[in-house]
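User: Could you check the structure of this?
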Amino acid sequence: MGKNVLLFDFDGTLVDLDKLKAYENVVSSLRGTPNRPLAEKLYQCDNGLCLLGEYDRRKVFAEFSGEFENTNADDFCDTFWRELRGAQRLKPRCIATLELLAAKGYVLALVTDADGFKGNKLERIEAAGLKKYFHPRIFIGGEEDRPRKGTSEYMRCVVKDLAANPGECVMIGDKTKIDLEPAADIGMETIWLKNNEYPAHWHRQVETLSDLIQEIEALN
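Assistant: Sure, the predicted structure tokens are below.
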């Protein structure tokens, strides 16, 4: 069975995020003055939650609510997502890699999780210029009655919606626990795009998106 369905994670896989810069802007906006040490604490808390598959920034706010007078969780999250849109950049060779894979006949799908409020993640996908490469195969966990990403249940739902079999699919992501383990659990091939923010070990890995093409073709 050929591996002709390629599932990509979004954050950290197709785009780089300067989350520290986003949190610096959040702090400046909500407190009226910069505070780099506080921004670093928010950033570290955020990364810890992401490793657990938790992307609701209300939980970050809950840890530091005392630092933000006259601000509620919704205001904090709205400010964070607005600042994050301006802090995302496409990874090198992202577009070229997607276009080449599509030209070779691979089916491309995007599997990601909600940004806390419905529609936020799709807005970021559109802002990155990536929607056209995946539409209509964009699956956002936690929206449209889908399970949250990071579970085997989520991956089964995606495969079903794609009318594919796990053995036809390859999952590509930068977080082994959230992106790859649930996919491997249902029988999909997996490729880890190395990310120094989330160090790990994986049996099949690449350094850059450009390296993907050779790795994928070696599976067929």
